[in-house]
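Most newcomers find our protein records easier to grasp once they have seen one. To make this concrete, we reproduce a full record directly below:

===
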Amino acid sequence: MSKRRVFDIDFEAEPTPAISTVGETRRGPMASAISENAAALTERQSAEADIRAENDRLAHEYVALKKDGAIVARVALTDIHTTKLIRDRAASRDPELAELKASIQAVGLSNPIHVEDIGGGYELIQGFRRLSAYQELYQDTRDPMYAQIPATLQASGVQLDHLYRRMVDENLVRRDISFAEMAQLALSYSKRSDTTAARDAVDILFASAGRQKRSYIRHFAHLLQVLGRDLMHAEAIPRALGLKVVKAIESNPKLVTQIAAVLRAHPKRDASEELGILSASLAGPKRAAAPVSAKSSAKTTLKLNRPEGQARCTATDGRFEVQLDRNFGAIDQRKLEAAVRSFLDQLAD
């Protein structure tokens, strides 16, 4: 009987599978992918929610800033209207506009205009002269940079008295604004509001001014009401002369017709001649009806926009003053003498 030979065969031990604990379920590849996608979706939704919240916050902040007129943008000239507020500017050519245009070309516009968003366009609140300068610069040059003007945006729906107050506040910053210009603003507001008398309009618009100043403005408002159509240079009327004329008119109402007739008889008069007519009217009808020449008491005021600021020039009998934010005493004497000599040569007959 044959014997069987026994061989020992060694097999490589296989890894023992992990044994899960009670309650655990082994996750397959599909489940892991679904779980990862769900986590990514949740994270993306959270990020989108944060973005929407931030956009809402920025939108509310933008609306608040726009309501306060703190948003600056470039606005097309063709989108700006100037009909809502009646200006204190005369319809005649502004002699300072050329200087303002030169300043804008040299150093740009340092102070944006202010407009109200009316939907499909903008209504001008502040900056009539700046807008006029840009309009003329674009007409003259056709440069696209002047087709749009920097402007602060005011949200729509602001009450009329608030808009006029904004315009008044801007004008009050000008130290050279005349009582006639302030009175014209009050009359304009009174006309647009329909229910507000001129004297009440002065109190509303110039509430921050002193009582005496408001009284002066009311007197000039009366002067413009009775002679405004015939006055060509009301902004040049000094406070003292204007108050005297109003007092004389209140004492003798017929004086209005006499003064108006003399003014109409001199249609090409300058500011000095107009002041002469008003001064002569205080001396009686005979002098008021006489041909008027420049009076020694007349005063001419010029306002020139310069790159270094606004120069205010006052000319009276034997005196010419220039007020400008500059130290003229620091200028070399020879240069100053040459400038004065050139100035006087230009005035020589």
Q: What stands out?
A: Residues 301-347 form one domain. The first strand starts at residue 71 and ends at 76. The CA atoms of residues 88 and 201 lie 14 Å apart. The chain has a mean pLDDT of 77.
